[in-house]
Design a protein that fits this description.
The chain is mainly β. Helices cover 12% and strands 36% of the residues. It has a six-stranded mixed sheet with strand order 5-11-12-13-10-6, with no helix packed on it. A six-stranded antiparallel barrel has the order 18-19-22-21-20-23. It has a four-stranded mixed sheet with strand order 2-9-7-8, with helices on one face. α2 packs antiparallel against α3.
């Protein structure tokens, strides 16, 4: 008996994680962490038993017994209201637990702990015209050949990760998949999924037998052997009481390595120094106005890395004195086009064309038509004119590993029809515009300035990459190109042009006679173009202009039957808006 007064905590190491204990090139004693006296990664860590007990307590499900539960579980999070059953069931499958109920008390037992020793049954009940015992073997096709476990990676910033276990010679593609909202390291997760598949496959073999009515010592969850029956160890899964006790059991195997020891194995190093494996993919984008906020808020960043680490981005106008601006907690979904993307229709869903993307990070998925029209599956594609086209897609089909064909396209969204017209080359960057894409946090005075940006691993030493030179914050302030350009000759010989203004801010409302004006005042420039050269420019304050007949004669020498024009709306921050071109019959 150790006197509690002589129990001390020892030691919490102040060296930077994850370099200690994962990088033996920096810290030679990192290998000793597995069995050493450090509290790093241990103090405050949960166990499977304490997690189940906490769930039972929080959900008020009554008395539970977890004394026979083995295994470590660093943490367990459910992001929505759930029943105790919903929370516990994935744990039962992943950790191979059995639950029995007696007198209002739930008893949880790990099959690893129940596997030694097995109780030997040497007395069976005889029933007329029935054998003492029966054995069945399920069809191989009814049982999975592969098991997949999704979990939260304890050694990778709690990012979602997955491990799998697969038979050497799978007979089919049936898989056992478990999504666990628990925190594990990779080795513990791999041991879990290996044991889960092994236990699942053992369940093919089942036996049935009968016990005398007074043989009450056995209950579901017990592991037994039959003295005069089939060889093997069997886990009792069901008992029906009557004139005899009818028992159903399944093969239990000989047990396996407990997670209590597996989880303490040292994590595999993720490479040498902290920055040796930190090679992020960075996309800095000057996007159009996608929603509420200031114009400069739509200068945005998307960052991905493998393994992912929380990333801090800092900015400077020079080579030093970097100022931190934002921290990215989620890995962006990035890819590259595998084929060129040409121009296409706008304002309608394009079912005739598709775009093919190889995803470097993340994946895409299909959505319903209503979800598409309500803002789902927006993405940015780097266009040939140096800008970004905003598209949306309804269907995503994986045609090979990490390569997706996207159908049901909406093109040129948010006024990016100029990028649509320019098209995109094969290899162009593709960025899924989800919550992982964040504003760079530009100040109003920084819009349009060329600045240097660097990325660093947040909360860890090293990992600085950059600088990336970027100028942003102006596209969202650029007036959009007018639409519906028209022109006709008046009775007196003058030519009148008209068009319709577009808006970037609150322009989708149906109230009122017109959309709000984005600028302080309304102003346009109309250019008359001949053989690619501007022969006359007209500046007006309304969405129409009059081209005098005398000016036409001066510019062309005779009345024209068609004219090429270019119209831009003028803005306060960005003087020249996006141009609209048209050749109009007169």
């Amino acid at each position: 008996m150790v006197d509690p007064g002589h129990v001390f905590l020892w030691t919490w190491d102040a060296r930077a994680a994850p370099s200690f204990p994962e990088d033996p090139d920096i810290f030679a004693d990192g290998e000793n962490w597995r069995t050493g006296h450090w509290l790093n990664g241990r103090l405050g860590a949960g166990t499977l038993a304490t997690v189940i007990a906490a769930i039972a307590r929080d959900c008020e499900i009554g008395e539970v017994d977890v004394a026979a539960v083995s295994g470590n579980l660093q943490g367990y999070v459910m992001g929505q209201q759930s029943s105790a059953r919903t929370l516990i069931e994935p744990l039962l499958t992943a950790y191979r637990l059995d639950v029995t109920e007696a007198a209002g008390r739930l008893t949880f037992r790990s099959r690893d702990l129940a596997s030694a020793p097995a109780a030997v049954i040497d007395v069976l009940a005889e029933t007329e015209d029935e054998p003492l015992w029966s054995e069945t073997l399920g069809q191989d096709g009814d049982y999975a050949s592969e098991a997949i476990l999704t979990y939260q990676a304890e050694d990778n910033e709690h990012e979602p990760a997955s491990v799998r276990s697969r038979r050497a010679e799978p007979a089919h593609q049936r898989a056992l998949s478990i999504s666990l909202a628990g925190t594990l390291d990779e080795q513990a997760a791999q041991a879990t999924v290996d044991a889960m598949l092994r236990d699942h496959r053992l369940g093919r073999r089942q036996i049935g037998f009968r016990l005398p009515p007074l043989a009450l010592a056995h209950e579901p969850g017990d592991v037994v052997e039959l003295a005069d029956g089939p060889e093997g160890r069997f886990l009792i899964t069901r008992i029906e009481d009557g004139d005899v006790r009818r028992v159903t059991a399944r093969e239990a195997g000989s047990g396996g390595e407990s997670l209590a020891t597996t989880v303490r194995a040292r994590r595999q190093p993720r490479g040498g120094a902290a920055n040796a494996v930190y090679r992020p993919l960075v996309a800095l984008m000057d996007l159009p106005r996608l929603g509420d906020g200031e114009d400069q808020d739509f200068a945005m960043a998307a960052v991905a890395a493998s393994p992912w680490r929380r990333t801090r981005m800092s900015v400077s106008s020079g080579a030093d004195n970097y100022e931190g601006r934002l921290t990215l907690s989620r890995r962006a979904s990035l890819g590259r086009l595998t084929t060129a993307l040409g121009a296409g229709p706008t304002a309608v869903i394009d079912h005739a064309n598709a775009v093919t993307v190889r995803m470097t990070s993340g994946a895409v998925e299909s959505v319903s038509r209503s979800a598409l029209l309500n803002g789902a599956n927006r993405a940015a594609i780097a266009a040939g004119n140096g800008g970004w086209e905003i598209i949306a897609f309804q269907s995503a089909e994986e045609i090979e590993a990490d390569v997706w064909r996207l159908h049901g396209l909406l093109r040129g969204l948010f006024g990016t029809d100029d990028a649509l017209a320019a098209g995109a080359e094969s290899g162009a960057r593709f960025v899924l515009l989800d919550d992982a894409v964040r504003s760079l946090g530009l100040k109003g005075t920084e819009a349009g300035l060329t600045l240097n940006w660097i990325t660093e691993t947040a909360g860890a030493a090293g990992g600085r990459v950059g600088p990336y030179v970027f100028s942003g914050g102006e596209r969202a302030a650029t007036p959009l190109a007018p639409v519906h350009l028209r022109g006709w000759r008046e009775p007196d010989g003058d030519i009148r042009f008209k068009w319709i203004r577009r808006g970037r801010i609150n322009a989708d409302g149906w109230d009122g006679d017109d959309i709000p004006l984005d600028e302080v005042r309304e102003a346009y420039r109309l250019d008359i173009v001949r053989h690619g050269e501007v022969v006359r420019s007209l500046h007006v304050n309304d969405p129409e202009a009059l081209y005098a007949a005398d000016d036409e004669i001066a510019d062309f020498g005779a009345p024209q039957t068609a004219l090429t024009i270019r119209v831009r709306q003028r803005g306060a921050r960005v003087a020249a808006g996006l141009p609209a071109h048209a050749t109009l019959p007169i």
